[in-house]
Amino acid sequence: MSDTVTLELKVEDIKKNADVKGCPVERSLYYITEFLAGPMCGRCFPCMMGSYEAKIRLQHLVEGRGETGDVEAIRRIATDMLEASMCKKGKDTAKFIMEWMASGVFEAHAGKRCPDNLCKAFIEYRIVGNKCEICGACKEACKYGAILGEKRKTYLSGYLPYEIRQKRCVKCGECIKACPYGAIIIVETKTNRLVGV
Ligand code: SF4
Ligand code: SF4
Ligand code: SF4
């Protein structure tokens, strides 16, 4: 009896921590990762195998590699877990995932968009050339060597403009904080829509 109570409390605690995350897909991935990190009794197949598969599918969606098939698979897994799980822990997990899926945000991620602009896979940091004062503060602030460019030198006619190398950028946001001129923006990669400065 006491074991059951401990498990139920743990699921509730994970849910509380997950709810702090703004994006429902990221929330689900956090939840299922923590769920799998706890004791897994393995008594029923939909919970045991389904939760592993759900974690992989959710990673696809959060990392920008997701497709409609991932969303369908997560929905199928949650439905099977709700029906066939033998304990409250499995059934509650299915309910939480279904609740987080209800807003359509999972489908948006399969379409390469995070409506809350919280998943880093769908945004880019960019330098706006005509606002950049070529001061170099962003390059100094970037710990990942993701910014190319050089300060203008009076004795040289040409210079290398400041630019963010997207493949190296981990989207930490330090360059935006360092730029004194508001010359760095965040855009949604798919639409080029401004989502932050
Ligand atoms: S639903 Fe419950 S009983 Fe079934 S595998 Fe998951 S934790 Fe075990
Ligand atoms: S967001 Fe971070 S990693 Fe990307 S360019 Fe700016 S400082 Fe570098
Ligand atoms: S900190 Fe801002 S103004 Fe300075 S080089 Fe970088 S983008 Fe340009």
Q: Can you offer a commentary on this structure?
A:
This protein folds into 2 domains: 2-110, de novo design (two linked rop proteins); 120-196, Alpha-Beta Plaits (2-Layer Sandwich). α1 (2-19) packs parallel to α5, α2 (24-37) crosses α3 and α4 (68-84) packs antiparallel against α5. Helices cover 49% and strands 9% of the residues. The model is unreliable at 1-6 (pLDDT under 50). It has helices spanning 2-19, 24-37, 45-62, 68-84, 88-101, 105-110, 137-141, 174-178; strands at 123-127, 147-148, 163-164, 184-188, 193-196. It has 197 residues and is mainly alpha-helical. The radius of gyration is 22 Å and the shape is elongated. The strands form 2 sheets. A 3-stranded antiparallel β-sheet has the order 1-4-5, with no helix packed on it. The structure holds iron/sulfur cluster (3 copies). One iron/sulfur cluster binds at residues 127, 132-138, 162, 178-179, 181, 183-184.
